[in-house]
Design goal:
Largest sheet of chain A: 3 strands, antiparallel
Strand content of chain A: 5-15%
Order of helices and strands of chain A: HHEHHEEHHH
Largest interface: A-B, 70 and 70 residues
CATH class of chain A: Mainly Alpha
Helix content of chain A: 55-70%
Radius of gyration of chain A: 20 Å
Oligomer: homodimer
Strand order of the largest sheet of chain A: 1-3-2
Number of helices of chain A: 7
Structural class of chain A: mainly alpha
CATH superfamily of chain A: Winged helix-like DNA-binding domain superfamily/Winged helix DNA-binding domain
CATH topology of chain A: Arc Repressor Mutant, subunit A
Number of strands of chain A: 3
Chain lengths: 171, 171
DNA sequence: TTGGAATGTCAACAAGGCTGACATAAACTG
DNA sequence: CAGTTTATGTCAGCCTTGTTGACATTCCAA
């Protein structure tokens, strides 16, 4: 277990030195505490509107992929249709989401944000992006690249599929 | 908004070029999908034992800081005492956690894992560390440093306090 | 001795997961 | 065309884990 050579940062190194249980524990707690920060701002906004995180997730992914189907959303969110449906129903009733019957396949429902839905989405994502932006700025470009690399490696393969999607533009 | 100079990786640069909304959205979704992976393995184990994430969190932080008080745990976990108490009660009843009355201050309860508690903790953290280790190995030392830097910057200040604690050893 | 802190407990409620069952419409398949 | 599968919605009921409010106990400290 003792590694005498090459500390973290060894060029091109797959140094195992930092993979002690203690270092891994730090990584685990970093995820735990950071995720709390990550959700804190949206949570406050959602509460004002009487919604929860589940609504945020739905709104986020409908905004990301306008016209997405219920089934697609299900596979991204990894919940049951009953859970998702409960959330979608309230969003539709409240006029934030519109559900259109498919053209080609009329069994499918395609989901879109209404104008009101876009307002909430913007409020939520503006707050969440602000926190992310501050963290990115503070950490610098190299750290951001590392952040993305580690997180991507931590995903389940199926989630990585969803992550890769859409306007891969940057990075 | 247009930044002509210095791409990502500009030496020492606080380059804003990569902080487009699109890049920030990627960061947000990275957090979302990665957190799912992060909790997936422990969730499966917990289910076998009839516990939930709340139990995992309690067991984790009691293991990290043996003898911690209920109040300290409350401030780390950020839940109400009623929520925590419900979880602690089952863990104590099931013989995974021991609650000892304080010596100096007999109002306080100091929490410890029993042998059985350590067994569950080990099972959970072994699985979670394995995922973290694979991700770290795959990403490399530099990425890991960046990962930690960004996550720390993302935390609320109070959470950062808790994060910094204990055997700062590595980094 | 009194106020407040630390803890525990009871009750009730809500969000958001889950399963199971069932209904409908549309599409596909032989 | 008949039968099956797919996509979706809905009802009912359960669980975990969060919440608030109220109240009791213990005991440190001023």
């Amino acid at each position: 277990m003792v590694e005498g050579s090459g500390g973290p940062g060894t060029p091109g190194g797959e140094s195992l030195l930092f993979l002690t249980d203690e270092q891994l524990r730090k990584g685990i707690e970093a995820m735990f505490f950071a995720y709390r920060g990550f959700t804190a701002d949206p949570d406050r906004i959602l509460e004002k509107h009487g919604y929860g995180r589940a609504h945020h997730r739905a709104v986020h992914f409908i905004n990301r992929s306008p016209g997405t189907t219920v089934n697609n959303l299900l596979s991204i969110l990894g919940v049951t249709k009953q859970s998702l449906n409960r959330v979608l129903r309230t969003l539709i009733e409240d006029g934030l989401v519109e559900s259109r019957v498919g053209n080609r396949d009329k069994r499918e429902r395609h989901l879109y944000l209404t104008e009101e839905g876009h307002v909430l989405e913007a409020e939520l994502s503006t707050a969440q992006r602000a926190r992310m932006r501050d963290a990115f700025r503070h950490a610098g470009p190299e750290a951001v690249a590392g952040f993305r690399t580690v997180l991507e490696a931590m995903m389940d393969p199926e989630m990585r599929r969803h992550y890769g999607r859409l306007k891969e533009g940057g990075q």
